[in-house]
Design a protein that fits this description.
Blueprint lengths: L5 E3 L3 E3 L4 H7 L7 E6 L2 E6 L7 E5 L9 H8 L4 E5 L4 H10 L5 E6 L3 E6 L8 H24 L3 H27 L8 H28 L5 H22 L3 H16 L1 H4 L4 H20 L3
Parallel strand pairs: 5-6
Antiparallel strand pairs: 1-2, 3-4, 6-8, 7-8
Helix pairs in contact: 4-5, 4-6, 4-7, 5-6, 6-10, 7-8, 7-10
Length: 294
């Protein structure tokens, strides 16, 4: 669809809005529209009129409860969820699940129902800050986990697990944002959605590693620590590339990954515990490598 640009006065240029779009959104003379720059494109949206989304679901017993029953609706952008049930134990399961959902609280409870509602004000304007926080958690969890392993400080290793919980909260929140408002940043929203999902998957690898160490308390070889240092350096490089792509840094990033691939076999001679640690770290490397395509 093409539109001719018309000049008005000395420096004002105008273009008409397509009638189909105007009718669909009920645009009238004097209404305001939102205009945003996105790379080479100019995005025009009707003025946002936020409406609350409500849904009612039934969870008969605690045995039939699934965390996704609530989390899925949160991500889809619902602001109020009424849950009916026959088993009061469902309430405690819901309470545990909404601890991961930023802004959500149980506001009313009766014998067979509860209402979960979005009670946060202004939090939905914080997408960029939340995404940055998510990236910093990825970096800090790796570095703190490495330090805890080096010092055999299992309390510190255990503490890193709280970062994975925070990551889950932030990743769910960021994905929710895509479903309740039009993202108008410089990066493609579909790419960002996938990126956020992969960051959570990467953090899961650190969690698996931390849980393994806390259970088995293995003796970690120095070769593993050298590889761990490389992983944490790689995470910081990825953050720099994400914020501002630099060709030289990207070339170095790829070269270091290729060097790591050439030395894979030596890690499989270090014993089962060290092999497990290496495999988790190697998966982190591959996930972060694929994130650079974004």
């Amino acid at each position: 669809m093409k539109r001719k640009v018309v000049k008005h006065g000395y420096a004002t240029l105008t273009v008409s809005l397509p009638s189909i779009w105007v009718k669909k959104h009920g645009i009238k003379q004097g209404d305001e529209v939102e205009i945003a720059l996105q790379r080479k494109s100019l995005i025009i949206n009707p003025e946002r009129k936020k409406s609350s989304k409500f849904v009612e679901i039934h969870i008969p017993t605690s045995e039939k409860f699934s965390p996704r029953d609530i989390t899925r609706l949160y991500v889809l952008g619902y602001d109020e969820i009424k849950v009916t049930f026959q088993d009061k134990n469902v309430i405690s399961l819901i309470e545990r699940e909404i601890s991961y959902l930023l802004g959500f609280e149980i506001v009313t409870v009766t014998e067979n129902t509860c209402v979960i509602k979005n009670v946060a004000q202004g939090i939905e304007e914080q997408f960029e800050n939340m995404l940055n926080r998510l990236l910093f958690i990825l970096i800090s969890m790796g570095e703190e986990l490495e330090e805890g392993l080096k010092r055999s400080n299992y309390d510190k290793v255990k503490l890193t697990l709280t970062k994975e919980i925070e990551c889950n909260k932030l990743s769910l929140f960021c994905r929710r944002m895509f479903n309740i408002q039009d993202y108008q940043g410089e990066k493609n929203p579909y790419i960002l959605y996938t990126l956020i999902t992969m960051i959570e998957a990467t953090m899961d690898e650190f969690r698996f590693l931390a849980e393994f160490v806390l259970t088995h308390k293995p003796k970690i070889r120095k070769e593993i620590f050298t590889f761990f240092q490389y992983i944490n350096k790689m995470n910081r490089s990825f953050y720099s590339l994400f914020k501002h792509f630099d060709q030289e840094l990207f070339i170095q990033f790829r070269m270091e990954r290729k060097m790591a691939e050439k030395n894979v076999e030596k890690f499989y001679k270090l014993g089962s515990s060290n092999i497990y640690v290496f495999n988790r770290l190697y998966t982190v490397q591959e996930l972060v490598h694929h994130m650079t395509y974004f």
